[in-house]
Amino acid sequence: MPGIPTHVDGRPIFGPPRPPHHNYILHVRLCPEQIVDPPVSRVLSCPGDATFDDLHKALQIAFGWATTHCYDFKVRNPAYAAPDEETEMLAMIQRLRRQNGVDPEGVDHDHDALSRSPPKSLLRLIQKQDPRKWPLGIGVDSMFANMEKHPLTPERPAKDVKLNEVFEDAKYRGRAMEYEYDFGDHWVHDISVEGRANATRAFECLDGSGHAVAEDAGGPHKWQELKQAYRAPEPSQEQRETMQWFEREASNRDVRGLAGGRERVWDRYVVNRRLMEEM
């Protein structure tokens, strides 16, 4: 009897799965125009066949977030120009009414203000939510999730899309990309592909700067204000209360605070240990 074949076209049938062709080296900057002195960024080596939901989990660990809010990834559209404030407000009201099952009177759905503009993003990768399992949404900010939609922007579940599907697609290659976490505070992380590395099965943090930002601080400007509070020679009552909140109550609190230059402290070893244990 012929033996059981072990190879097809020179490739082994059995054994561990082959790794992807390469990893992507991603430089991720958190609100770079607003968060300065120091900036907060991380450089990650990411398996090419990881999904964007995997990347979300890796970024949560790398940046020290608490995974309590919604997220999405967007490939930015350079042709898109933000509408004026009145048009944006009207479109938001229309979206909210549709979301609640109320049909806006006198509105032509196919020709509303936003549907006449270019897509806001070339692609949006979203967190898939099962209303049967999460009737109120996954994140505490889930009520804002539909406000991020644009009628002409294609959407796909982040868990179904691999990094190499986007980074190797001619439509998206070289385009600016972002990861937004918390649709209330709008923590926007700019993502750039800096290069490639040998294939691995694991995420790894290679470099970075800046202490993890306080969850629910209120946005980038509030993080800047928190750092100023720690630098103040005589903090005000409001500043003392904010520092106390960060050290005792924030979901990603740091009991040691930010005094003495600790706004620059982060631990790559701890990040990589968590990536290894939790991914």
Summarize this structure as a short list of keywords or feature phrases.
Structural Genomics Hypothetical 15.5 Kd Protein In mrcA-pckA Intergenic Region, Chain A, 10 strands, 279 residues, alpha+beta, eight-stranded mixed sheet, 24% helix, two-stranded antiparallel ribbon, globular
List the helices and strands and how they pair.
Layout: E1 7-8, E2 11-12, E3 23-30, E4 41-47, H1 52-63, E5 71-76, H2 85-99, E6 121-126, E7 155-157, H3 163-167, E8 177-181, E9 187-197, E10 204-209, H4 220-231, H5 237-248, H6 268-278
Helix pairs in contact: 4-5
Quick structural overview:
The protein has 279 residues and is of the alpha+beta class. It contains 6 helices and 10 strands.
CATH superfamily of the domain at 19-80 and 118-214 and 266-278: MM3350-like
Please identify the top-level CATH class of the domain at 19-80 and 118-214 and 266-278: Alpha Beta
End-to-end Cα distance: 45 Å
Q: Which structural class do the helices and strands define?
A: alpha+beta
- Extract low-pLDDT stretches: 106-111, 132-137
* Rg calculated over all Cα atoms: 22 Å
Share of residues in helices: 10-25%
Name the strands of the widest sheet in spatial order. 7-6-5-8-9-3-4-10
The total strand number stands at 10
Helix-strand string? EEEEHEHEEHEEEHHH
What's the shape? Answer: globular
Strand residues, percent: 15-25%
Mean pLDDT: 84
The CATH architecture of the domain at 19-80 and 118-214 and 266-278 is Roll
CATH topology of the domain at 19-80 and 118-214 and 266-278: Structural Genomics Hypothetical 15.5 Kd Protein In mrcA-pckA Intergenic Region, Chain A
Count up the helices: 6
**What's the story with the biggest beta sheet?**
8 strands, mixed
